[in-house]
Amino acid sequence: MANRYAALLRGINVGGHKKVPMARLRALLEGLGYDGVRTHLQSGNAVFAADGGNEGTHAAAIEQAIEKEFGFAVDVLVRDAAYLKAVADACPFPAADLEPKQLHVTYFSAPVDAARFAAVDRAAFLPEDFQLGDRVLYLYAPDGLGRSKLGAKLSTPALNRGMIATSRNWNTVTRLVEMTHD
């Protein structure tokens, strides 16, 4: 039986840069031999089924195909259905009591530990807060990510050095779980 995955593309279709139309992305993924390909929004979320391979091999194949097709590099994280559900289930914030715009998940390409974020003065950003999980950071931003001073601090290159990091709001997090479990 094929495994279900989500591909999270970083930094596409933002401000007219790195344009990747979703219809072309679906065709590209189907051309790689993936089944059941669907996309969500224009911000680079695709789900697919695959026999064999793993998150890393699928991400590398998609990155190479995008660069060949569109002429620019895009970082891609691929996560399987079980992982996506575990991330949603492990949310340390009361997701059911919050507006989806108040809760965000940053997915990382590798495990992150508290030492990486130890210099962040969390008290200075209250009521905003963050918690680390399995290759993720959960961010509570009561006024939304666009106004989040903590979100801006956490996304600095110094804190994310050596890793791919891409964020999704809670609506997208839960929708990707649904899409990979349909």
Automatic annotation (TrEMBL):
Domain of life where this protein originates: Bacteria
Pfam families attached to this UniProt entry: DUF1697 (PF08002)
PANTHER family in the record: BLL4334 PROTEIN, DUF1697 DOMAIN-CONTAINING PROTEIN
Name of the protein in its database record: DUF1697 domain-containing protein
Organism: Streptomyces formicae
